[in-house]
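A reminder from the course coordinator: this example appears on the midterm review sheet, so study it carefully.

Given structure:
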């Protein structure tokens, strides 16, 4: 590894779909953090995979260098195959000062980085083995990957207090608690008319169609209520046909499915104009969709789990069942005047999640790892047995 320039780090970001950010929390984090680090003079390289095979990704994006590599188009292999290609590419060239690996599922490649003496921080994400899309084999894999991430990483990054507590209790492993940021925006609502919508005139869901995001519970609760305003559902999933059919079967004529919305301006206006944003995510730690919603001033009713309470605190209302959702939908429509006060409370919570501060935390961690080099002693990765499987 070449001598460290104290003013500029070479930082490689690995394990996601990369940039430009179009999908998911990891990609949002890489774009927001990476562009800030690049603006501060660091040389940031992001390994990316391309959903559009007809056009190449740009070689630079927001000051970051982009390396496009292929991936196998299967749910169980897409991430791993791309990460494997990324690590091979990294090791074949002058090594970076630090690698940041996103997703503990990529832990099988950490020993190769360790052998090359590349300091590595792993952003462990949420409790992936709890996701309903994985069968018994997938859950066993993710639990093994968690343990490997603990053993072979020089630092672990958790984006929520609940995740940090899990790694402390389950592995006696310290983590760097670095949450995502919330973009505080005033997007307006002028484009809602393109969709036949008006400010305060609809309920909203934005989520991938996965069991642990509870889109079906929101739709079932909504249709079981006497709601007059439509429910707008934004989202889809490439590998969830059965769950998608279930969600659609629970809908009635008041539910409007928009599919995926890649137009960020329009999506921000949907958040800003909603009477209520219904957030059902439950296992992924701090969720960027939730942060973007409160940054746009959306009143939020959320699935009752520690990650969501950590973000919303008293600014949110909470539900667990379809019956809970129905009651909250009815309550919101009965008192539309409460929307302005709830929107202000959301913005107040968003102020505590600042992307500039997040980038500074990443910068400090990368500088520390680059200076210290790979750790000689790390947690063993053995489970304490204190957390039920």
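Designed residues:
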């Amino acid at each position: 590894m070449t001598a460290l320039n104290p003013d500029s780090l070479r930082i490689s970001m690995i394990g996601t779909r990369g940039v430009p950010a179009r999908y998911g929390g990891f990609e949002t984090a890489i774009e927001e953090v990476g562009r800030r680090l690049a603006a501060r003079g660091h040389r940031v390289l992001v390994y990316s995979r391309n959903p559009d095979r007809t056009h190449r990704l740009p070689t630079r994006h927001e000051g970051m260098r982009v390396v496009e590599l292929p991936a196998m188009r299967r749910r169980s292999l897409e991430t791993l195959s791309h990460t494997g290609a990324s690590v091979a590419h990294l090791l074949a060239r002058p090594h970076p000062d630090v690698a940041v690996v996103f997703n503990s599922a990529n832990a099988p490649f950490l020993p190769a980085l360790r052998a090359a003496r590349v300091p590595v921080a792993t952003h462990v994400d949420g409790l992936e083995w709890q996701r309903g899309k994985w069968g018994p084999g997938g859950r066993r894999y993710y639990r093994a990957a968690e343990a490997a991430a603990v053993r072979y990483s020089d630092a672990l990054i958790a984006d929520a207090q609940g995740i940090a507590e899990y790694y402390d209790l389950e592995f006696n492993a310290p983590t760097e608690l670095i949450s995502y940021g919330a973009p505080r925006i005033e997007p307006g609502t002028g484009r809602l008319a393109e969709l036949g919508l008006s400010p305060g005139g609809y309920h909203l869901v934005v989520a991938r169609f996965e069991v642990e995001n509870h889109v079906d519970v929101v739709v079932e609760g909504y249709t079981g209520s006497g709601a007059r305003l439509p429910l707008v559902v934004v989202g889809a999933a490439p590998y969830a046909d059965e769950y998608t059919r279930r969600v659609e079967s629970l809908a009635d004529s008041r539910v409007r499915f928009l599919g995926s919305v890649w137009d960020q301006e329009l999506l921000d206006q949907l958040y800003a104009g909603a009477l209520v944003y219904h957030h059902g995510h439950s296992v992924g730690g701090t969720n960027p969709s939730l942060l973007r919603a409160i940054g746009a001033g959306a009143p939020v009713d959320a699935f009752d789990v520690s990650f969501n309470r950590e973000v919303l605190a008293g600014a949110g209302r909470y539900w667990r069942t379809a019956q809970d959702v129905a009651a909250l939908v009815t309550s919101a429509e009965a008192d539309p005047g409460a929307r302005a006060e709830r929107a202000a409370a959301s913005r107040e919570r968003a102020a505590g999640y600042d992307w500039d501060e997040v980038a500074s935390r990443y910068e400090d961690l990368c500088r520390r790892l680059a200076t210290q080099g790979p750790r000689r002693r790390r947690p063993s990765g053995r489970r304490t047995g204190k957390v039920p499987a």
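The radius of gyration is 21 Å. Residues 1-5 have pLDDT under 50 and may be disordered.
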